[in-house]
Amino acid sequence: MAKRVFVIGAGATKVGEHWDRSLRDLAVEALLAAIKDAGIDKRDVEALYVGNMMSGELQGQEHLGALVATWAGMVGVAAFKVEAACASGGAALHQAYLAAASGLYDCVAVVGVEKMTDALPSDVTSALLTAEDQEYVVFTGATFVGLNALVYRMYLTKYGVKQEDVARFAVHCHKMAVNNPYAQFRREATLEDVMSSPLIADPIRLLECAPVGDGAAALVLCNEDFLRRNSHDVLVEVAGSAVATDVLSVHERKDPLAMAGSRKAAEAAMKRAGIEAKDVDVLEVHDAFTILGILTLEALGYAPPGKGWQLVAEGELEPGGKIPTNTMGGLKARGHPVGGTGIYQVFDIVRQLRGEAGPSQVEGAEIGLAQNLGGVAGTVVIHVLRRVR
Amino acid sequence: MAKRVFVIGAGATKVGEHWDRSLRDLAVEALLAAIKDAGIDKRDVEALYVGNMMSGELQGQEHLGALVATWAGMVGVAAFKVEAACASGGAALHQAYLAAASGLYDCVAVVGVEKMTDALPSDVTSALLTAEDQEYVVFTGATFVGLNALVYRMYLTKYGVKQEDVARFAVHCHKMAVNNPYAQFRREATLEDVMSSPLIADPIRLLECAPVGDGAAALVLCNEDFLRRNSHDVLVEVAGSAVATDVLSVHERKDPLAMAGSRKAAEAAMKRAGIEAKDVDVLEVHDAFTILGILTLEALGYAPPGKGWQLVAEGELEPGGKIPTNTMGGLKARGHPVGGTGIYQVFDIVRQLRGEAGPSQVEGAEIGLAQNLGGVAGTVVIHVLRRVR
User: Fold this and answer.
1) A90 to chain B: closest CA residue
2) B143 vs A: CB within 8 A
């Protein structure tokens, strides 16, 4: 019987352009903040998971487990890097969860980190493309935004939807980020701003894309055995954690709009948590591009296929709406330091469930769900969090 | 209570220069061989772990979890890449073990893979250096072999040992590889061959270094719940699995010869398995350089500090000796496709425990221990395997 696992600490750096700090600095800052928040000694942490995608390509640095352990003053701890493209953070959290659930570790930490602004934009573009099939897709000259543009165009054509209705997802995210001190862009953007921003890959506009940024977020998890030895007034449980893959390359999928991996992983995570989609109070979706946010709302069952955009138009994604989504700004405006994103999403949910979300608070939020995507949804990680006291 | 975990399938490619196959081809070949060996359907596998260090740098390819899942025809499976430098294979196996031990997955697969020969030697050297601290060590111009040379020189000086006595470890490995059909170098090398081979970084000679090569090895693990539904005549248990870090950079360690991580991880893994070092029938050590093999023998307690080389000189590492070690050739001669190595080590031990080791068979072998190192022993992974029927 797997042990129950809880989030007892959470910390993060602001997302942004951190010219004064390196990847290790960001990781250590977030990690120590989470350990401090947990009220434990760092020597209590038995295993350390680092979620990161591009440190090899952008920093010439692998072996982040031992690196971060050394720089955080945690030498000796079991340490690992976990990679699953843009879902690296979520994937690392899943491993941390399994470690604590197994009972072979009682207290573990996970930090998701990416440092993207030290590199040339062309190098970042290349590094992001390592998420796709190098031999059969990247070789053709495809870019990551280009591949998402194909999915976007297919959606607009198949359902006769106007681009403005999809693009409005970015307007929502910018509005939500205003009150988030950790967000990269704490400013609103109008629909006109979005639609008049430069065209990156038809139809995707600049302001429909998550930005490049630096940041790290961390969580401390423990199982029920560790909890007995420590007290926490407010407690959030990892009620469900599941991962699924889809066919790696979008052009080989039967239905590129179906998000089969999201359906599968969400079903498994919700089943484990004993909840249904309607029970979710706060949702974090992986809106690397606006279209991915809309498709996720449909894949998770919050809207029929082709109708996800209506939730945005009707304000249902805001606190008080039907399904409050990306209440801290999402990838679009909170930011998307790639390997960090999966952890930032859970960090954002934990703040909501603890009632620490300030002006963005969803009243009485008890259950949150985070969806983290790798590649064009080739890997999907779903976490269900529940406040248990 | 963590569930017991067993190795029910093992497969590998020969290590070598596979010009006709790409990284994914090697991974899929080994993975499907392991699944076939397990006698299960690939749809039984619920999670897939890929151990790999350098695919981002050398192939421009990350997201190996979804890539291998797709190409192996296992779309849907939860899939991850785990990285811990040269210990990536062992680290991935540790995660696979935790997954099955947790009971949240009943049957999982792990494949370790590296494709090194498609790249320029200078690029391979750079990629290997991502294991070390980029900002404080690599920046000075240090190379990986150079760092190990410092440790080697320190050992020779401190204990007054002759280089020939350390270098003889390579002679042993070459002798062992002759009977291993999976080995990269199935030929003997004399001590004169080793000592007259080119000097790479004083005092390390070419034939004291593990070679560059391509290869993949895979294992299928299951827990006791899955086992009840399947029968296996011969069965090997993962009796212990532990990971420890040391200070990342060797120059910052109190005692660079102590291998503190190896001691810590071995102690934890053996404790869990309920054994002592003397109970081990077959040993696999991470001899990326001869000196690492010798230091490991000392760290694990098979010889006092400064005396590990005597075991080689006295033939105690051969089948029938005190502690049969690297009986399939070790990194030196079986080969060292980096991310694959940690899995090859366990693959080699499994063959011994099953009695499938041919002329290299250690009679009556029941317990094996594998030690996989990342960087200059910055990460250490120890697995204890036991034949249970």
Assistant:
1) B80
2) no
CA nearest to A10, candidates A130, A75, A93, A129: A93
> How would DSSP label each residue in A68-126?
HHHHTT-TTSEEEEEEBTBTHHHHHHHHHHHHHHHTS-SEEEEEEEE--TTS-HHHHHH
DSSP helix/strand/coil, A386: strand
Contact present, A265 and B77 (Cβ < 8 Å): no
Residue in this structure with the two tokens 């320190």, named with its chain if needed: B154
Intra-chain end-to-end CA distance of chain B, in Å:
23
Question: Which residue of chain B is at minimal alpha-carbon distance from A263?
Answer: B76
Are A244 and A261 in contact, with CB atoms under 8 Å apart? yes
What whole-number distance in Å separates Cα of residue B299 and Cα of residue B34? Answer: 32
Look up the pTM and report it: 0.98
Take residue A8 and report the two structure tokens written for it: 């007892």
> pLDDT tens across B188-225, in order?
999 999 999 999 999 999 999 999 999 999 999 999 99
Cβ atoms A295, A286 nearer than 8 A: no
Most A CBs within 10 Å, among B248, B251, B271, B376, to test the A interface = B248
Residue A328 CB coordination number (10 Å): 27
Query: Which of chain A's residues have a Cβ under 8 Å away from the Cβ of B1?
Result: 1, 103
Active site residue A336: yes
A86 is catalytic: yes
Distance of alpha carbon B326 from alpha carbon B293, whole angstroms: 9
* Interval A261-296: pLDDT, tens: 999 999 999 999 999 999 999 999 999 999 999 999
Can you name the residues that pair with A215 across neighbouring β-strands?
A114
Binary contact (B60, A129; C-beta < 8 A): yes
The set of residues, in sequence order, having a beta carbon less than 8 Å from that of B182 and lying 6+ positions away, is B12, B13, B14, B15, B215, B328, B334, B344, B347
Q: Hey, is the C-beta of B274 within 8 angstroms of any chain A C-beta?
A: no
Place of tokens 């934990």: A350
Q: What is chain A's length?
A: 389
**Looking at this protein, which amino acid is placed at residue B365?**
A
CB-CB: which of A56, A82, A243 is closest to B130?
A56
